[in-house]
Amino acid sequence: MDEDVFNQQIRKFLKKVGITSQREIEKAVRTALDNGALKSSETLQASMTLQIPGIDLSVTIDESIKLS
After folding, report:
1. What is the DSSP string of 3-65?
2. Which domain covers residue 45, as residue numbers?
3. 67 Cβ partners below 8 Å, 6+ apart?
4. Would the pTM of this model clear 0.85, i.e. be above it?
5. How many domains does the chain have?
6. Cα–Cα distance, 36 to 14 (Å, whole number)
């Protein structure tokens, strides 16, 4: 295994996950605020699951997201 290539590939994957996740969360929050389904002072509970079946990896990350 080439450690440099492996590290670059992980970083590429995580960058894509991070950017895509942020855009989707922002879009959903704006829509919910516009529709009145969400108040700007709320805290959202978020969960992300990373799965890589080929190595039997499944990790769930839970976090709060404050809107203000």
Report:
1. HHHHHHHHHHHHHHHHHHHHHHHHHHHHHHHHTTSS-TT-EEEEEEEEEEGGGTEEEEEEEEE
2. 3-66
3. 29, 38, 39, 40, 41, 42, 43, 44
4. yes
5. 1
6. 32
Instruction: List the beta bridge partners of residue 48.
Output: 61
Q: For the chain, 68 residues long, give each residue's pLDDT as a single digit of tens.
A: 999 999 999 999 999 999 999 999 999 999 999 999 999 999 999 999 999 999 999 999 999 999 99
The Cα diameter of the chain in Å comes to 51
Query: What phi, psi does 65 have (nearest 5°)?
Result: -120, 115
